[in-house]
Amino acid sequence: MTDQSRPDEGPEAGQSSGHPPVPTCYRHPERETYIRCQRCDRPICPDCQRQAAVGFQCVECVREGARATPAARTRFGGVVRGEGALVTKVLIGLNLAVFLLTVVVGRAVEQQLSLVGNRFFFADAVGESFGVAGGAYWRLLTSAFLHVEIWHLAINMFSLWVLGPPLERLLGRLRFTGLYLVAALAGSAVAYAFTSPLTPILGASGAIFGLFGATVMMARRMRADMSWFLGILLMNVVLNVVFRHFLSWQGHLGGFVAGLVLGAVIAYAPRERRDLVQGLGFAGVLLASIALILWRTAQINAGLA
To answer: Which stretches make up the Peptidase S54 rhomboid domain (predicted)?
Structure first.
Protein backbone atom coordinates (compact mmCIF):
# COMPACT_ATOMS: atom_id res chain seq x y z
CA MET A 1 0.00 0.00 0.00
CA THR A 2 1.44 3.33 -1.07
CA ASP A 3 1.46 6.55 0.99
CA GLN A 4 0.04 9.28 -1.35
CA SER A 5 0.63 12.27 1.01
CA ARG A 6 3.40 14.74 0.23
CA PRO A 7 5.92 15.87 2.81
CA ASP A 8 5.17 19.58 2.17
CA GLU A 9 1.45 19.33 2.94
CA GLY A 10 -0.23 20.05 6.30
CA PRO A 11 -0.12 22.95 8.77
CA GLU A 12 3.28 21.90 10.09
CA ALA A 13 4.69 22.50 6.62
CA GLY A 14 3.71 26.22 6.67
CA GLN A 15 0.27 26.15 5.11
CA SER A 16 -2.37 28.49 6.56
CA SER A 17 -4.32 26.99 9.42
CA GLY A 18 -7.30 29.27 8.72
CA HIS A 19 -6.51 31.76 11.55
CA PRO A 20 -6.22 35.51 10.71
CA PRO A 21 -2.73 37.05 10.94
CA VAL A 22 -1.68 38.56 14.27
CA PRO A 23 -2.18 42.38 14.11
CA THR A 24 0.87 44.59 14.55
CA CYS A 25 1.25 48.25 15.48
CA TYR A 26 0.88 50.52 12.46
CA ARG A 27 3.96 52.50 13.55
CA HIS A 28 5.99 49.54 14.82
CA PRO A 29 5.27 46.53 12.56
CA GLU A 30 7.50 44.26 14.64
CA ARG A 31 5.23 44.63 17.70
CA GLU A 32 2.11 42.49 18.08
CA THR A 33 -0.93 44.17 19.62
CA TYR A 34 -4.66 43.65 19.96
CA ILE A 35 -5.40 47.22 21.07
CA ARG A 36 -6.91 49.53 18.46
CA CYS A 37 -7.36 53.30 18.26
CA GLN A 38 -10.93 54.29 19.11
CA ARG A 39 -10.99 56.86 16.28
CA CYS A 40 -9.18 55.32 13.30
CA ASP A 41 -9.23 51.63 14.37
CA ARG A 42 -5.53 51.13 13.64
CA PRO A 43 -3.59 48.70 15.88
CA ILE A 44 -1.41 50.51 18.41
CA CYS A 45 1.32 49.23 20.71
CA PRO A 46 1.77 50.50 24.31
CA ASP A 47 4.21 53.21 23.18
CA CYS A 48 1.66 54.60 20.72
CA GLN A 49 -1.36 54.44 23.01
CA ARG A 50 -2.81 57.63 24.47
CA GLN A 51 -5.53 57.39 27.12
CA ALA A 52 -8.88 58.67 25.87
CA ALA A 53 -12.28 59.12 27.49
CA VAL A 54 -13.07 55.62 26.23
CA GLY A 55 -10.19 53.27 25.47
CA PHE A 56 -7.07 54.52 23.70
CA GLN A 57 -6.23 56.69 20.71
CA CYS A 58 -3.15 56.77 18.50
CA VAL A 59 -0.67 59.64 18.45
CA GLU A 60 -1.94 61.10 15.17
CA CYS A 61 -5.59 61.12 16.24
CA VAL A 62 -4.71 62.83 19.53
CA ARG A 63 -2.73 65.47 17.63
CA GLU A 64 -5.54 66.07 15.14
CA GLY A 65 -8.07 66.30 17.96
CA ALA A 66 -5.97 68.90 19.76
CA ARG A 67 -5.84 71.03 16.60
CA ALA A 68 -9.58 70.75 16.07
CA THR A 69 -10.51 71.55 19.68
CA PRO A 70 -10.70 75.32 20.39
CA ALA A 71 -8.47 76.56 23.21
CA ALA A 72 -10.17 77.03 26.57
CA ARG A 73 -10.92 80.68 27.33
CA THR A 74 -11.04 82.68 30.52
CA ARG A 75 -14.14 84.61 31.53
CA PHE A 76 -12.83 87.70 29.73
CA GLY A 77 -11.60 86.03 26.55
CA GLY A 78 -7.99 85.12 27.32
CA VAL A 79 -6.50 81.72 26.52
CA VAL A 80 -6.20 79.48 29.58
CA ARG A 81 -2.59 78.49 30.27
CA GLY A 82 -1.30 75.80 32.58
CA GLU A 83 1.72 77.77 33.81
CA GLY A 84 1.11 80.32 36.53
CA ALA A 85 1.82 84.04 36.15
CA LEU A 86 4.58 83.72 33.55
CA VAL A 87 4.20 87.29 32.26
CA THR A 88 4.21 88.70 35.79
CA LYS A 89 7.45 86.87 36.55
CA VAL A 90 9.04 88.08 33.31
CA LEU A 91 8.07 91.69 34.05
CA ILE A 92 9.49 91.48 37.56
CA GLY A 93 12.65 89.92 36.14
CA LEU A 94 13.05 92.75 33.61
CA ASN A 95 12.64 95.41 36.30
CA LEU A 96 15.19 93.67 38.53
CA ALA A 97 17.63 93.27 35.63
CA VAL A 98 17.46 96.96 34.72
CA PHE A 99 17.93 97.92 38.38
CA LEU A 100 21.03 95.73 38.65
CA LEU A 101 22.30 97.33 35.45
CA THR A 102 21.96 100.78 37.00
CA VAL A 103 23.86 99.58 40.07
CA VAL A 104 26.72 98.19 37.96
CA VAL A 105 26.90 100.80 35.19
CA GLY A 106 25.68 103.85 37.07
CA ARG A 107 24.16 107.11 35.87
CA ALA A 108 24.62 106.32 32.19
CA VAL A 109 21.66 103.93 32.32
CA GLU A 110 19.41 106.61 33.80
CA GLN A 111 20.53 109.04 31.10
CA GLN A 112 19.61 106.62 28.35
CA LEU A 113 16.34 105.20 29.72
CA SER A 114 14.59 107.80 31.90
CA LEU A 115 11.67 109.87 30.65
CA VAL A 116 12.79 113.44 30.06
CA GLY A 117 11.21 115.88 27.65
CA ASN A 118 13.99 118.38 26.99
CA ARG A 119 16.90 117.12 24.91
CA PHE A 120 19.38 119.28 26.86
CA PHE A 121 18.64 117.92 30.33
CA PHE A 122 21.84 115.96 30.94
CA ALA A 123 25.04 118.00 30.94
CA ASP A 124 27.02 115.47 28.93
CA ALA A 125 24.32 115.35 26.25
CA VAL A 126 24.26 119.04 25.30
CA GLY A 127 23.70 119.49 21.59
CA GLU A 128 22.17 116.03 21.09
CA SER A 129 18.55 115.06 20.47
CA PHE A 130 18.40 113.46 23.88
CA GLY A 131 14.87 113.93 25.18
CA VAL A 132 11.51 112.70 23.95
CA ALA A 133 10.90 116.00 22.19
CA GLY A 134 14.13 115.43 20.29
CA GLY A 135 12.99 112.06 18.99
CA ALA A 136 13.90 109.69 21.85
CA TYR A 137 10.39 108.24 22.06
CA TRP A 138 11.68 104.96 23.47
CA ARG A 139 12.02 106.71 26.83
CA LEU A 140 8.25 106.63 27.24
CA LEU A 141 8.43 102.85 27.76
CA THR A 142 11.99 102.23 28.94
CA SER A 143 11.46 104.61 31.86
CA ALA A 144 8.73 102.25 33.12
CA PHE A 145 11.38 99.59 33.78
CA LEU A 146 13.88 101.93 35.44
CA HIS A 147 14.33 102.40 39.21
CA VAL A 148 17.28 104.00 40.97
CA GLU A 149 16.03 103.65 44.57
CA ILE A 150 15.65 100.23 46.16
CA TRP A 151 12.53 101.26 48.11
CA HIS A 152 10.84 102.42 44.89
CA LEU A 153 11.63 99.12 43.19
CA ALA A 154 10.50 97.09 46.21
CA ILE A 155 7.10 98.80 46.47
CA ASN A 156 6.37 98.49 42.76
CA MET A 157 7.48 94.87 42.50
CA PHE A 158 5.50 93.90 45.61
CA SER A 159 2.40 95.49 44.10
CA LEU A 160 3.05 93.76 40.77
CA TRP A 161 3.48 90.40 42.48
CA VAL A 162 0.17 90.80 44.36
CA LEU A 163 -1.90 92.25 41.50
CA GLY A 164 -0.32 90.50 38.52
CA PRO A 165 -1.09 86.77 38.97
CA PRO A 166 -4.87 87.07 39.53
CA LEU A 167 -5.21 89.53 36.66
CA GLU A 168 -3.07 87.38 34.37
CA ARG A 169 -5.27 84.35 35.11
CA LEU A 170 -8.43 86.34 34.39
CA LEU A 171 -7.21 88.09 31.24
CA GLY A 172 -4.75 85.63 29.73
CA ARG A 173 -1.19 86.47 28.80
CA LEU A 174 -1.88 88.60 25.73
CA ARG A 175 -4.46 90.90 27.32
CA PHE A 176 -2.47 91.18 30.55
CA THR A 177 0.71 92.12 28.68
CA GLY A 178 -1.22 94.67 26.63
CA LEU A 179 -2.80 96.14 29.75
CA TYR A 180 0.56 96.54 31.48
CA LEU A 181 2.35 98.12 28.52
CA VAL A 182 -0.49 100.41 27.41
CA ALA A 183 -1.03 101.61 31.00
CA ALA A 184 2.72 102.24 31.27
CA LEU A 185 2.65 104.28 28.05
CA ALA A 186 -0.46 106.20 29.12
CA GLY A 187 1.14 107.04 32.47
CA SER A 188 4.30 108.23 30.71
CA ALA A 189 2.25 110.27 28.24
CA VAL A 190 0.39 112.14 31.00
CA ALA A 191 3.60 112.67 32.98
CA TYR A 192 5.37 113.92 29.86
CA ALA A 193 2.51 116.27 29.01
CA PHE A 194 2.03 117.83 32.44
CA THR A 195 5.48 117.78 34.03
CA SER A 196 8.43 120.09 33.46
CA PRO A 197 10.50 118.89 30.49
CA LEU A 198 13.58 119.29 32.69
CA THR A 199 12.37 116.74 35.26
CA PRO A 200 13.46 113.11 34.79
CA ILE A 201 10.68 110.57 35.41
CA LEU A 202 11.15 106.87 35.97
CA GLY A 203 9.54 103.83 37.56
CA ALA A 204 6.84 101.22 36.91
CA SER A 205 4.22 103.09 38.95
CA GLY A 206 2.15 104.13 35.93
CA ALA A 207 1.80 100.49 34.86
CA ILE A 208 1.14 99.39 38.46
CA PHE A 209 -1.63 101.96 38.86
CA GLY A 210 -3.01 100.69 35.55
CA LEU A 211 -3.30 97.26 37.17
CA PHE A 212 -5.05 98.89 40.13
CA GLY A 213 -7.59 100.49 37.81
CA ALA A 214 -8.22 97.27 35.90
CA THR A 215 -8.58 95.33 39.15
CA VAL A 216 -11.27 97.76 40.30
CA MET A 217 -13.30 97.09 37.16
CA MET A 218 -12.73 93.31 37.22
CA ALA A 219 -13.78 93.09 40.87
CA ARG A 220 -16.84 95.25 40.21
CA ARG A 221 -17.87 93.09 37.27
CA MET A 222 -17.42 89.89 39.27
CA ARG A 223 -18.79 91.35 42.52
CA ALA A 224 -15.67 90.12 44.27
CA ASP A 225 -14.40 90.90 47.77
CA MET A 226 -12.15 94.00 47.58
CA SER A 227 -10.77 94.01 51.13
CA TRP A 228 -7.37 92.54 50.20
CA PHE A 229 -7.02 95.07 47.38
CA LEU A 230 -7.93 98.19 49.34
CA GLY A 231 -4.97 97.79 51.69
CA ILE A 232 -2.46 97.80 48.85
CA LEU A 233 -4.20 100.71 47.12
CA LEU A 234 -4.25 102.70 50.37
CA MET A 235 -0.53 102.06 50.85
CA ASN A 236 0.23 103.45 47.40
CA VAL A 237 -2.01 106.49 47.93
CA VAL A 238 -0.29 107.29 51.24
CA LEU A 239 3.12 106.98 49.60
CA ASN A 240 2.02 109.36 46.85
CA VAL A 241 0.97 111.92 49.45
CA VAL A 242 4.07 111.56 51.63
CA PHE A 243 6.52 111.54 48.73
CA ARG A 244 4.56 113.83 46.43
CA HIS A 245 7.65 115.96 45.77
CA PHE A 246 9.57 112.90 44.57
CA LEU A 247 6.87 110.89 42.80
CA SER A 248 5.06 111.67 39.57
CA TRP A 249 1.41 111.78 40.56
CA GLN A 250 0.64 112.71 36.95
CA GLY A 251 2.04 109.41 35.72
CA HIS A 252 0.20 107.48 38.42
CA LEU A 253 -3.07 109.19 37.52
CA GLY A 254 -2.58 108.56 33.81
CA GLY A 255 -1.90 104.88 34.37
CA PHE A 256 -4.84 104.51 36.75
CA VAL A 257 -7.32 106.12 34.34
CA ALA A 258 -6.00 103.96 31.48
CA GLY A 259 -6.44 100.88 33.68
CA LEU A 260 -10.01 101.87 34.54
CA VAL A 261 -10.89 102.35 30.87
CA LEU A 262 -9.22 99.15 29.69
CA GLY A 263 -10.61 97.20 32.63
CA ALA A 264 -14.13 98.38 31.81
CA VAL A 265 -13.75 97.52 28.14
CA ILE A 266 -12.40 94.05 28.94
CA ALA A 267 -14.93 93.31 31.67
CA TYR A 268 -18.08 94.55 29.94
CA ALA A 269 -17.40 93.74 26.28
CA PRO A 270 -20.32 91.70 24.83
CA ARG A 271 -19.30 88.10 24.37
CA GLU A 272 -20.35 87.84 20.74
CA ARG A 273 -18.10 90.81 19.77
CA ARG A 274 -15.61 90.57 22.62
CA ASP A 275 -12.35 90.52 20.66
CA LEU A 276 -13.42 93.42 18.45
CA VAL A 277 -14.64 95.63 21.30
CA GLN A 278 -11.60 94.91 23.45
CA GLY A 279 -9.25 95.54 20.53
CA LEU A 280 -10.91 98.89 19.83
CA GLY A 281 -10.62 99.80 23.52
CA PHE A 282 -6.89 99.12 23.56
CA ALA A 283 -6.46 101.00 20.28
CA GLY A 284 -8.41 103.98 21.63
CA VAL A 285 -6.27 104.34 24.77
CA LEU A 286 -3.12 103.87 22.70
CA LEU A 287 -4.13 106.53 20.16
CA ALA A 288 -5.12 108.97 22.92
CA SER A 289 -1.70 108.50 24.51
CA ILE A 290 0.08 109.04 21.19
CA ALA A 291 -1.96 112.18 20.51
CA LEU A 292 -1.02 113.59 23.92
CA ILE A 293 2.65 112.79 23.29
CA LEU A 294 2.63 114.50 19.89
CA TRP A 295 0.87 117.57 21.31
CA ARG A 296 3.43 117.92 24.09
CA THR A 297 6.33 117.37 21.70
CA ALA A 298 5.09 120.13 19.42
CA GLN A 299 4.65 122.41 22.43
CA ILE A 300 8.20 121.81 23.70
CA ASN A 301 9.80 122.20 20.29
CA ALA A 302 7.89 125.45 19.77
CA GLY A 303 9.42 126.79 22.98
CA LEU A 304 6.09 127.00 24.78
CA ALA A 305 7.02 124.67 27.65
So the answer is: 136-267
